[in-house]
């Protein structure tokens, strides 16, 4: 009896040591809970699709659904509902659908609120060409990592005199250091060969110069990853001619916004692009970046690919690479087959049919 | 001397005319012509800029070789001009980018003020130098108030690209915005960079864009902005564009956010006609469009101000890695020199050289390395000159 207990304890330890990443060690036993924010418009239907696919894949994930409509907290400040915050703080990992920002609602955009609440400093968007969804660009395989908290989007603007407006772009040493180190860490963990810093230090000498210095310092600590720097305009020029020369790109806020959307355009648009936001204290929220599409909401016409690929990204972040690979292959195979596709991908199937096709494929894989 | 301040000073004013006649100063014909033309120009504020000074039927143009591939490409331009007997003389002004002092730049700016027109290569900015040393190209643009950067991106029939039938005119505000070079470190480790948007400059560039659209028979102008985030700054720019648009009911006006614009450009660039935008977005969009039509070696760019015009390649690359290897593509610089000839009203020479260049570009075997071929710069230039000669023009020896 004692011998059996000792053997099972030993196998647990061996199993722990065999695991690939440090994060996965916490999740070997049992199910991981993830906060799910369905969102508005087509959000609920695509979230349901993702939950169904995860169930079919037998992924060890338990979903905790929460709503994030802005409410006024004490002191008049807008904040997200406390139960949502509590859930995220406990689970650390979240999956979010599209949220609508009503104009003139009085409160800032929900995405901005979430970003501020959890200090989501890095926006990561892997852009990989999807076989079966033809664009003029094939073989795209790059990742854009964008600093998400400061830079040109600090929101500090003044009217100096009537007709003259100044907008302040803020670059701090701390934020630049954090994003640079995250970029190299990501490159190392995902076996990427090089990191390129994108900047405009010839014009914005001090601000982008500071960002560049921090990237160089981080490069010193990660000698196994190649580091290059390139001007923003050169990156744009080369990206549309030959995107295969880029691997991981790290940059401040505005350039990141433009470049990440440019890269999304290369692979087919926001409807098929995954995205993840990494925050301080181990918090990570993965999301689909397209809009709420109110015109097709509730009609079972939505394409769940973006949210699904973001969920796959989430699985990889959590260390569940096996399940991630399974779901991703099923999704890509279904799209490559071109038999069951939603309208935006060029077919005329329903969302539920597309979901069913992916689930069936995974069952066949087992 | 009063008259030197009149020539080099920033603002011409109406007392200028009175001063010529009251001061008993001996002026030669050329200078009187310049001053008279300038005062006439004042009365036609906002009309076409009159051609710069011309003496004996020949124009003088300032030439700034710059760094990297600039010097060799500009030499080829001179070669083609000499061959075609174009009545333009070049005044060469060198700018050494390694020096920290501004004397070189001041000489260049003075020369451009004197001649009114310039053709330049890109001057490298070493960003290891301290922040007080501004980008030389930027200093040139702001000192001469070259407020409009115009770039015409057209698909060339002989060049293979992923997208076909692109025909976009990009008008970019060239003096303010993010390129104001106003930065400071308020606290150690925190740097602020100011982006300035003014009503005057925004109205000016929007006006320029709509006028150009009307002149060229274009139907639609799109303003590119990020006013959802930078509500005051880009909001002001957008408002100015809308105001100007109301005065041109024959031209459709719409606006698009910059990240959506780049996404649309890589999927469906044929939807765009004329685009107007502030400085930084202009940088991004013009580079994306240059990449879409075949690369930096193909597209010429022009910088127009009220009184001066400077022509260069659209994407302003120094091309250090391909300098002096005879593999650079001379198309962009040659087409820029054609734009310059059009500006000087030497339209016949402009179309002659332009047609020769485009004919040469259609031949795949002459394509240089940036277009995926094996051709050299000198082969392309020789071919251009042969085409010019074949048109029966009076030329020098090949």
TrEMBL record, chain A:
It catalyses: D-threo-isocitrate + NAD(+) = 2-oxoglutarate + CO2 + NADH. PROSITE patterns: IDH_IMDH. It comes from the Eukaryota. Keywords: Magnesium, Metal-binding, Mitochondrion, NAD, Oxidoreductase, Transit peptide, Tricarboxylic acid cycle. Residues 33-358 form the Isopropylmalate dehydrogenase-like domain. SUPFAM superfamilies: Isocitrate/Isopropylmalate dehydrogenase-like (SSF53659). It is found in: Mitochondrion. GO terms for molecular function: isocitrate dehydrogenase (NAD+) activity; magnesium ion binding; NAD binding. GO terms for cellular component: mitochondrion. GO terms for biological process: isocitrate metabolic process; tricarboxylic acid cycle. Pfam families: Iso_dh (PF00180). Its cofactor is Mg(2+); Mn(2+). Catalytic subunit of the enzyme which catalyzes the decarboxylation of isocitrate (ICT) into alpha-ketoglutarate. The heterodimer composed of the alpha (IDH3A) and beta (IDH3B) subunits and the heterodimer composed of the alpha (IDH3A) and gamma (IDH3G) subunits, have considerable basal activity but the full activity of the heterotetramer (containing two subunits of IDH3A, one of IDH3B and one of IDH3G) requires the assembly and cooperative function of both heterodimers. NCBIfam families: mito_nad_idh (TIGR00175). PANTHER family: DECARBOXYLATING DEHYDROGENASES-ISOCITRATE, ISOPROPYLMALATE, TARTRATE, ISOCITRATE DEHYDROGENASE [NAD] SUBUNIT ALPHA, MITOCHONDRIAL. Belongs to the isocitrate and isopropylmalate dehydrogenases family. This is Isocitrate dehydrogenase [NAD] subunit, mitochondrial.
UniProtKB/TrEMBL annotation, chain B:
One of its GO terms (molecular function) is NAD binding. The keyword Manganese applies. The keyword tRNA-binding does not apply. GO terms for biological process: isocitrate metabolic process; tricarboxylic acid cycle. Keywords: ATP-binding, Magnesium, Manganese, Metal-binding, Mitochondrion, Nucleotide-binding, Transit peptide, Tricarboxylic acid cycle. InterPro entries: IsoCit/isopropylmalate_DH_CS, Isocitrate_DH_NAD, IsoPropMal-DH-like_dom. Its cofactor is Mn(2+); Mg(2+). It is found in: Mitochondrion. It comes from the Eukaryota. Residues 60-384 form the Isopropylmalate dehydrogenase-like domain. GO terms for cellular component: mitochondrion. NCBIfam families: mito_nad_idh (TIGR00175). Belongs to the isocitrate and isopropylmalate dehydrogenases family. Regulatory subunit which plays a role in the allosteric regulation of the enzyme catalyzing the decarboxylation of isocitrate (ICT) into alpha-ketoglutarate. The heterodimer composed of the alpha (IDH3A) and beta (IDH3B) subunits and the heterodimer composed of the alpha (IDH3A) and gamma (IDH3G) subunits, have considerable basal activity but the full activity of the heterotetramer (containing two subunits of IDH3A, one of IDH3B and one of IDH3G) requires the assembly and cooperative function of both heterodimers. PANTHER family: DECARBOXYLATING DEHYDROGENASES-ISOCITRATE, ISOPROPYLMALATE, TARTRATE (PTHR11835), ISOCITRATE DEHYDROGENASE [NAD] SUBUNIT, MITOCHONDRIAL (PTHR11835:SF60). Heterooligomer of subunits alpha (IDH3A), beta (IDH3B), and gamma (IDH3G) in the apparent ratio of 2:1:1. The heterodimer containing one IDH3A and one IDH3B subunit and the heterodimer containing one IDH3A and one IDH3G subunit assemble into a heterotetramer (which contains two subunits of IDH3A, one of IDH3B and one of IDH3G) and further into the heterooctamer. This is Isocitrate dehydrogenase [NAD] subunit, mitochondrial. It comes from Maylandia zebra. The lineage of its organism: Eukaryota, Metazoa, Chordata, Craniata, Vertebrata.
